[in-house]
UniProtKB/TrEMBL annotation:
InterPro entries: SecG. This is Protein-export membrane protein SecG. It comes from Giesbergeria sinuosa. The gene is secG. It is a multi-pass membrane protein. Residues 101-121 are annotated as: Disordered.
Length: 121
């Protein structure tokens, strides 16, 4: 399962970087007004109408992939092993001879030596 989580994480990182690049390449809605008044910045790599469709669809696809990867990582992050218990209980059973080691509550604690000399009021 660790390999699957790493693959999903890699896809999520690539989708995030791709979205960042595509969003920075796209023109805003106000960029067309500047081109209408003669700024000359209306030329693009994919043509005037094809760039918005190609870039926006690719961005939407990457956003969907990012969203699915995020949900998958959240699911795998909350999956618990079949045995319920704390991490400390699992660590105590992993230590050889840990069954014979008494717990701290079972060990009697002697009173401090100086406490018997203090008078109670």
């Amino acid at each position: 399962m660790n390999v699957l989580v790493n693959v999903i994480l890699g896809v999520q990182i690539l989708a995030a970087l791709g979205m960042i690049g595509l969003i920075l390449i796209q023109h805003g809605k106000g960029a067309d007004m500047g081109a209408a008044f003669g700024s000359g910045g209306s030329g693009s790599l994919f043509g005037a109408s094809g760039s918005a469709n190609f870039l926006s669809r690719t961005t939407a696809g990457l956003a969907a992939a990012f969203f699915v990867c995020t949900l998958a990582l959240a699911y795998f992050g909350n999956v618990r092993p079949a045995s319920s218990g704390s991490v400390l209980e699992g660590a105590a059973t992993a230590i050889p001879g840990a069954a014979n080691v008494p717990t701290p509550a079972a060990v009697p604690v002697p009173p401090p030596e100086g406490a018997a000399q203090i008078p109670a009021k």
